[in-house]
Amino acid sequence: MGQRYRCLDAGTSMSLDNRLSPTNVAKAFDCANEWASLRMRLGSAYWLCDSLQFRRACNTVHDFTDKFVSQALKMSAEYHAVGSSALPTNKGGLIDSFADFATSSEELRYQTLHVLVAARDTTAAMVSWCLNRLLRNRTSLSRLRSEVFAHFGTETKPHQQINFVTLKACKYLQWVLMETNRLYPAGPLNARTATEDTILPVGGGPDGTQPIALRKGTQVKFCNYLTHRDKSIWGEDAWESRPERWEHRRHGWEYTPFGGGARLCPGQQYGLTEGGYVLVRLLQRFDQIESMSPVQEIDKKQYKTIIVAKDGLRIRLHKANIATA
After folding, report:
1. Are 128 and 313 in contact, with CB atoms under 8 Å apart?
2. Is residue 242 part of a domain?
3. Are residues 108 and 229 in the same domain?
4. Is residue 1 part of a domain?
5. Whether the predicted pLDDT of 154 surpasses 60
6. How far apart are CA 7 and CA 30, in angstroms?
7. Residue 6: predicted pLDDT
8. Which residue has the higher pLDDT, 214 or 187?
9. What percent of the chain is predicted at pLDDT more than 90?
10. CA distances from residue 9 to 36, 46, 101, 196 in whole angstroms, order as listed
């Protein structure tokens, strides 16, 4: 948006219209997101899933977004009115870049919301699931902490900066992130619509291995949550977290937590870097992680438009001895 709105600051309002206060917008966004996930699962019968609560939440989110849309379109028109030579080299935010190509305010609104939905809680969910899996696999936790110390040092005696390059070089950290995204992909359900008559190489015939013809407009849905846990691809331990499986493995289309091809998630590397940084800093400061939830509750999942822990991640962290960290 080109500016901070501070939706995480509960009780703080930047708007005279309380309905559009940061807290209320965040709540409306989450509400609309939950209803949208239900409608997605119903497919062509999505219209059966409706309520006054959902419509009010959508109106709040739309009104919030439209303020920034109006500003971006106005700015774009002003810059183009005086000629391209006056265009700034670095405009305020992503929405300003979208504004140069939008054909209407409604199109710009929905393009912006697509980005917001994709960015909402995805990295936080990934970090939560990483910690969830490390809690259940003490060997992985111990190895990861040892490698964090080897690469970055301790909190009190760091010997290397934590950045994109150094995080990528910490191989076991990357394996942990990849394994977490395999088991809990941010977008577990997805779909593509044929823009013309076409033929897919597999999916037809009695066993699904023959080509299949699709008419223009046909929607193909796929669930990478299940593909990522397919034992014929990943082995008998497909449902288990084992970061070491990535040591000699190069993935293809069987692994798509961020999509693939031309529609690959533009925030992939940002999210992985952000999540990796948080894990490194946590493991530098804390030497023990304990679950505060009953064992039978810790793995319960909830699908919004991403997979999240049903009751959140409740943990206790033990600060490391300053002499060793």
Report:
1. yes
2. yes
3. no
4. no
5. yes
6. 12
7. 66
8. 214
9. 42
10. 25, 34, 33, 47
**Which of 257, 233, 231, 261 has its CA nearest to residue 122?**
257
Instruction: Tell whether 263 and 286 lie within a shared domain.
Output: yes
Give yes or no: residues 151 and 111 share one domain. Answer: no
Range of the domain at 212: 191-220
| Same-domain check for residues 53 and 104 | yes
Instruction: Count the domains in the chain.
Output: 3
Q: What are the structure tokens assigned to 258, written together? A: 């961020």
2 within a domain of the structure (yes/no): no
Task: State whether 38 and 97 are in the same domain.
Answer: yes
